[in-house]
Each structure stands twice: as C-alpha cells, then as structure tokens.
Amino acid sequence: NMSNKHDGCYKSINGRLGKLHYHRGQNFTDAQKHCERVDNSQLAVMKDNATIYDVVASLESYPENRKCIERDFWIGLHKENDKYKWLDGGVWDQTITPVDNSYPGNCVQLYWVRGMKPRWSQENCSSLSAFLCYTSLTDEPLSTTTVTTFSTLRKSTATAASPQSVSPVLIGAIAGGVFALLLALILVMYFCRKRKQRNQNLSPAQNPEVNMSLNFNPMYEESAQEKINPIYNMDI
C-alpha cells in the first residue's frame, strides 16, 4: 500500500529543533521509504533528550482526534547484530532512553500518552503502525542533553525555546526590588517626619531645651551674686 500521497490523518508540525510529519499505517521498512519519498525526511532519529522532547512536544500539539491519534509510532531505531542503531548509522545511547526488549522484534516503537513520559519498546518490524518522520534543523549536540528526566527536560527546553517566557520573570524580579526599595524609603521619610512633628508639639515643660531658655533671667543671677559677694552687703 505504498503511496506518494499523505494519509487522511497526516499532519506536519514545526518544532523548535525540527519538523515532524505524522503518518499512520505502515510497517517499519515502508514507513522509512515513505518518509524519504514523500517528506524528504526519515524516521525520527533522537540521539539526545532535547530532540526527544521536541518530537514529543510536537505530538502534544497534535489535535485530539480519536480517529487519527495513535499511541505507538515507528522511530528510526532498529537492531542489527543484536545492537540497536539509528538509521543514520549513529550509536544508540541506552542511558538516555532504555528500550523495553521484552517483546520479539528488531524494530523500535515510541509509546506515547499525552502528558506522560514516552517509552520505547522493541516490536516486530512487519507490524503496521503509525510513524514519525522527522527532519532536524541542526546536527550539533545541545547542552540540554545532560538533562535526564523528562519532567525537568520539559521545563528546561520550554524555557530555552521561548525567551518571552524568561522576560516576565526578570521584569517581575526587578520591579519587586524597586518596589521594596521605594517602600523602605517612604517608611524612613514617614518616621522622620513623625518624629519632627512630635518634637514640635512638646510643651515647654516637656522640652528641656525650651524650658532652659525660658527660665534664664539676669535679675536672678545678680541676686545670687549679691548673696555670694559680701562686699555688696557692707554698710558704707
């Protein structure tokens, strides 16, 4: 049933790192040929976590259509001489995504449920399944390959993919700091003003400085000196 046309459930999705082509109903060999001939692509080769996320994120954006949506997809990984290899000749890294080899077969499928971590399993290559053609935009390894958990990866790459998602955080932090500084200055000015008003409202008896200036009288000082100096008390 090879065809040069797209099936009714076909969808092309632009991801951050590449372009995904969603198809249904081919065995492994025919699926790869279809990718090459119709999409000028190949079955998805995912050598790092960033690419895995990009493929899965593209799947997440696929409309929820019960007629078209699948759970198992052929990807570009198969077994040769008891070793898993990518269709482009690259070596499979089992530390990134292990393959469940409890099923017979030499080809690998990606099992996906919306919102969950994907799993890979070994399947019979002649089985009919949906498949994912993927054209990567770059061959350079990404720093996100060091991320090993899908949940952490999802957050990291989503943030990296959209600079706009970072800007509100930075703007919020800066705005919060400026607001806190302004609030502190306003409080300092408020308490200084209250203290000044309180000092101005004190009565002379309560304010030592005012009290001292009011009680000073030169006549009192002269009387005191007369008592102290006997010369002023002598009769002439």
Q: What topology does this entry show?
A:
Blueprint: E1 11-14, E2 18-26, H1 28-38, H2 49-60, E3 72-80, E4 83-86, E5 99-100, E6 107-111, E7 119-123, E8 129-136, H3 150-161, H4 163-200, H5 208-215, H6 218-228
Parallel strand pairs: 3-8, 5-7
Antiparallel strand pairs: 1-2, 2-8, 3-4, 3-6, 6-7
Characterise the protein shown here:
- This protein has helices at residues 28-38, 49-60, 150-161, 163-200, 208-215, 218-228, and strands at residues 11-14, 18-26, 72-80, 83-86, 99-100, 107-111, 119-123, 129-136.
- The protein is α+β, with helices and mostly antiparallel strands and 236 residues long.
- The chain folds into three domains: 11-161, Mannose-Binding Protein A, subunit A (Mannose-Binding Protein A, Chain A, Roll); 163-201; 207-236, no CATH class.
- Strands 1, 2, 3, 4, 5, 6, 7 and 8 form an eight-stranded mixed beta sheet that branches.
- Strand 3 (72-80) and strand 4 (83-86) form a beta hairpin.
- It starts with 10 loop residues before the first strand and ends in an 8-residue tail after the last helix.
Q: What keywords describe this structure?
A:
236 residues, alpha+beta, Mannose-Binding Protein A, Chain A, 3 domains, 8-stranded mixed β-sheet, disordered C terminus
> How many domains?
3
Low-pLDDT regions = 139-166, 208-217, 223-236
CATH class designation of the largest domain: Alpha Beta
What distance separates the N and C termini?
149 Å
Q: Strand-and-helix sequence, N→C? A: EEHHEEEEEEHHHH
Shape: elongated
CATH 2nd-level architecture of the largest domain: Roll
What is the structural class?
alpha+beta
CATH superfamily grouping of the largest domain: Mannose-Binding Protein A, subunit A
| Total helical segments | 6
Biggest β-sheet strands, sense, barrel: 8 strands, mixed
What Rg do the Cα atoms give?
Answer: 41 Å
Mean pLDDT: 73
Query: How many beta-strand elements?
Result: 8
Share in β-strands: 15-25%
Helix content: 25-40%
CATH domain topology of the largest domain: Mannose-Binding Protein A, Chain A
Keywords: Membrane, Transmembrane, Transmembrane helix
InterPro entries: C-type_lectin-like (IPR001304), C-type_lectin-like/link_sf (IPR016186), C-type_lectin/snaclec_domain (IPR050111), CTDL_fold (IPR016187)
Pfam families: Lectin_C
Organism: Ciona intestinalis (Transparent sea squirt)
